[in-house]
Amino acid sequence: MLEGKVAIITGAGGGIGRDIALLMAQQGAKVLVNDVGASLGGEGRNAGPAQSVVTEIETAGGVAAANTDSVADASNAKRIVQNALDAFGRVDIVVNNAGILRDRFFHKMSDDEWDAVLKVHLYGSYYVSRAAAEPMKAQASGAFVNMTSTSGLIGNLAQANYSAAKLGIAGLSKSIALDLDKFGVRSNCIAPFAWSRMISSIKVDSDEQAARVEKIKQMTPAKIAPLAVFLASDSARDVNGQIFAVRNNEIFLMSQPRPVRSVQRSEGWTPQSIAEHAIPALRPSFHSLDVSADVFSWDPV
Q1: What is the rounded distance in angstroms from the CA atom of residue 101 to the CA atom of residue 195?
Q2: Residue 163 half-sphere exposure toward CB, CA atoms < 13 A
């Protein structure tokens, strides 16, 4: 499905990114495997993970190259895209997958923990997408696959930085879809459920959390890759600006914010009339303080 296309996949040295890289190569794409080889918190550099995936692709008969630039820097992001252009002559696909975690309850979060996660996830997705937009626009084709999360779309505890970044990515993806649609360039999101290095860092301090982790372990990163390949392919030419979730063998189309209920007064509102009339009318449609596990409460199939 991707014969003749060139894909950039960030954070592809392991986990979800690795499986997407392997399947895209299997489906005919030439792949630039980007990974800085950092720790889960973003520290350190190691060229090994990216090169290891390149070796896997080449051993299977595919074509790939490694890149170890950080997506969190605008000049490095430009270098990632230029690396793909130099190696393969074009850029057709960008999968914004790179990420780190620095989980902390909001009232305990440091500025550095906030900045680091936003830089890799949200800024990184912007920087790489912005650099790739020019060649895609010039060739009048291209596809972005952006990794969001139910942590942002729904919510999770102790992840204000990650949640803000992932919900921001959903907004960024929609904006890219709107702005570049007339140039034949598409942008969609995937919220993945999969056992990965990031998920393995979740602190387990209750039987309930342990049971949830055991469920997540059943969901391998390879389950995410088929949807990413489809969204990057010409078969998805009419799929743009959407948010999907993948949970083992289930694929979901996620809702996007729209008005739920309204109230109106011809004379306008006062704080008192809002308290007495507006809120009681709207309250039945309020959203509860759900976390992702509350919404996706059934066992994966």
Answers
A1: 14
A2: 17
Burial of 240 (0-12, 13-18, 19+ CB in 10 A): buried
pLDDT digits (tens, 9 = 90+) for 44-91: 555 699 999 999 999 999 999 999 999 999 999 999 999 999 999 999
pLDDT at 42 over 70: no
Report domain extents, the chain: 6-256
Nearest-angstrom CA–CA distance, 153 and 242:
13
Q: To which CATH superfamily is domain 6-256 assigned? A: NAD(P)-binding Rossmann-like Domain (3.40.50.720)
Bridge partners (DSSP) of residue 30 are 6
Which residues are known to be catalytic?
A: 162
139 CA to centre of own chain: 25
Residue 191: phi, psi to the nearest 5?
-100, 105
Token digits of residue 249: 């063998």
**Buried/exposed code over 72-96 (b: 16+ C-beta within 10 A; e: otherwise):** beeebbbbbbebbbebbebbbbbbb
Torsion angles phi and psi, residue 143, rounded to 5: -145, 130
Residues near 4 by beta carbon (within 8 Å), at least 6 away in sequence: 28
User: Model's pTM, two decimal places?
Assistant: 0.92
pLDDT at 199: 56
The residue ranges of DSSP E strands in the chain, in sequence order, are 6-9, 30-34, 64-67, 93-96, 142-147, 185-193, 243-247, 250-253
Q: Indicate the DSSP class of residue 175.
A: H
Beta sheet of 64-67, edge-to-edge order: 64-67, 30-34, 6-9, 93-96, 142-147, 185-193, 243-247, 250-253
Q: Worst-scoring range by mean pLDDT, 92-101, 136-145, 158-167, 213-222?
A: 213-222
Coil, strand, or helix at residue 104? strand
